[in-house]
Amino acid sequence: MKKMALVIASVLLACASAIAGQEAVVAPPETLVVEGVPKIPASLAETAGRYGAYRNAALVDWHPTKRTLLVNTRFAETPQLHLVSLPGGERHQLTFFQDAVRVGRFHPNGGDYIVFSKDISGGEWYQLYRLDLATGEITLLTDGNRGTAWGRGRTRATRSRTHRRGARARTQIYG
Q: Which of 1, 40, 62, 147 is 20 to 30 A from 174, comparing alpha carbons?
C-alpha cells in the first residue's frame, strides 16, 4: 500500500513539474496560418520588445517670436508634438492621439496656433489640423493631404490634395 501511494505521488509530482516547466508562448493572430514555424517563448518576445520601445525627440519648428520650440517626441508607441518653452525646460505634450503626429508648424505671424498633419489609422490619408495654443482646441482643416506650406504673406496655408475617388489634384488655400 505504501509503495502504491509512493508511485502515485511520484507520477503526480512528475506531471505537475512537467506542466509547470512549460513556458508560455506567443500565439499568432487568428488571421495567420502558421505551419512549420517553432513556437516563440513569451520571455523572448518580452526581451526583444525593449529594443523596439525607445524615446527620441526631434526639432519640428521654432516659435516666430519667442524662445519656444515645437518638438516631436516618442514616449510610448506613437510620436506626438510637445512644446518646450525655455532652454533646458520640460516638454509639455500638445497632442494625444493613437496615430503619430510628426509634423507641425507655428503660425508665422504670432505663433498663436499650430497647423499639424496626422495620418488616420495608417491609411496614408494625412489630414491637417489646427491646434489653438491658448485653448488647446483642435480643429480638422482638410481631407486628403499631400503637402502643406505657408503662403508669402504668411497668413494663409496652402496644401496640395489628391482626391480619394480619383487622381485629380488641386491646391487649396486656408487662412
A: 62
35-78 per-position pLDDT tens digit = 998 988 988 888 887 777 777 889 999 999 999 999 999 877 78
For cell 499650430, the residue is: 114
- Phi first, then psi, for residue 139 (nearest 5°) are -125, 130
Whether this prediction's pTM lies above 0.90 is answered by no
Distance from the Cα of residue 72 to its chain's centroid: 11
Q: Determine contact, residues 112/102, Cβ cutoff 8 Å.
A: no
| Number of neighbours of residue 70 by Cβ within 10 angstroms | 22
Beta bridge partner(s), residue 116: 104, 129
Determine if residue 136 is left, alpha or beta; phi over 0 gives left, psi from -120 to 50 gives alpha, anything else beta.
left
Cα(123)–Cα(144) distance, integer angstroms:
10
Q: Is residue 148 within 8 Å of 129, Cβ to Cβ?
A: no
What's the pLDDT tens digit per position in 103-162? 999 999 999 999 999 887 777 778 899 999 999 999 998 876 555 555 555 555 555 555
Sign of CA dihedral 56, 62, 65, 67: positive
- Measured distance CA(51)–CA(49) in Å, rounded: 5
| Residues 55-174, CATH architecture | 6 Propeller (2.120)
